[in-house]
Write a structure and sequence with these properties.
0% strand
Length: 105
């Protein structure tokens, strides 16, 4: 689950961002605690944070906006899945689904 997988693989394009988000969503399916869901929500957010880093801006150059858009879209999809899973396991489904909202989880 969340602690069993290293998600920090090399990212070379928007497809890699999508694949990382898919891996996070696979972990969501197996999460059985709020703590695990919170960690997965943070990981999804971390991809967006990385897309705003100077290192990624330098690496992707003119393609950085497309990378950022993909990261933000994937964050929303992942967060919605986290909220559905939270309901399934009987915990609050109150994770932010849009990047930039406060994250008090």
């Amino acid at each position: 689950m969340a602690d069993d997988r290293n998600i920090y693989q090399s990212v070379d394009n928007k497809t890699d961002v999508h694949e990382l988000a898919l891996k996070i969503r696979e972990d969501v399916e197996n999460a059985d605690t709020r703590a695990a869901l919170t960690e997965l929500h943070r990981r999804a957010g971390y991809l967006v944070t990385l897309s705003h880093s100077s290192a990624w801006k330098e690496k992707f150059g003119d393609d950085i906006e497309e990378i950022r858009d993909t990261a933000q879209e994937e964050f929303g999809v992942t967060a919605r899945k986290i909220n559905r899973r939270a309901e399934d396991i009987g915990t609050d489904a109150d994770y932010d689904e849009s990047w930039g909202e406060s994250d008090d989880n």
